[in-house]
Design goal:
Layout lengths: L10 H8 L1 H4 L4 H36 L10 H13 L3 H24 L2 H10 L3 H23 L7 H9 L8 H13 L12
Helix pairs in contact: 1-5, 1-9, 3-4, 3-5, 3-8, 3-9, 4-5, 5-9, 7-9
């Protein structure tokens, strides 16, 4: 495939195609344009829309896509996302599809952000496993956002470009798409609502 990106490639699809190397198959302008659209979509959905989308995909991941037995099937998650977004009012449908890709990418990244030992501890403690995961993921998202803010200071105008530079850096510990999805969701949901209510 040419290094010039003809069309945006979703974060979840990049995860399926082969991790960190896949993101660099696509030219930087295409990645930045995609991140701009993703940030806009996450913000456009608002608190209620983001909550409904994240809740639907979380529930579907457990009940239909095998998340209770390990990493959920990406094909199943994409199908769930498509069905959820197609059922939305037409005015929100496009934003839902783009934001859903971010949620799917974050769901597929959970096992990397929260290690197996921690997840086993949550299970052994009893109680609400998802609540414990939400809290742990929020800590990881906040830490990543803080690191991003220090490494790439700036305003909202060049935010997509700064996210791309930060997530593409060679010394980064996360693949570009995992890093980008986490930042897009965490920063995009920061519209005055508690980020804890926006965890995908």
């Amino acid at each position: 495939m040419s290094r010039r990106m003809r069309a945006p490639v979703g974060l979840a699809l990049l995860l399926a195609l082969g991790g960190a190397a896949a993101a660099h198959t696509y030219a930087r302008p295409g990645r930045v344009a995609y991140l701009a659209r993703a940030l806009e979509a996450v913000r456009q959905l608002g608190v209620q829309g983001r909550g409904e989308l994240a809740g639907a995909l979380q529930t579907g991941a457990r009940r239909r896509c095998g998340a209770d037995r390990g990493e959920p099937s990406i094909t199943c998650l994409v199908d769930l996302a498509r069905a959820h977004c197609e059922a939305q009012p037409s005015v929100r449908r496009s934003a839902c599809h783009v934001a859903a890709d971010v949620v799917v990418a974050n769901l597929l990244s959970e096992s990397e952000l929260v290690d197996e030992a921690t997840r086993v501890r949550f299970v052994n403690q009893g109680g609400d496993f998802r609540a414990a995961m939400r809290a742990a993921l929020l800590v990881e998202y906040a830490a990543l956002a803080a690191e991003f803010g220090l490494a790439q200071p700036g305003g909202d105008v060049d935010l997509p470009s700064r996210i791309d530079r930060f997530c593409a850096r060679p010394e980064g510990t996360l693949a570009w798409q995992r890093c980008a999805a986490a930042l897009v969701w965490y920063i995009g949901a920061d519209d005055g609502a508690s980020p804890a209510r926006q965890e995908p």
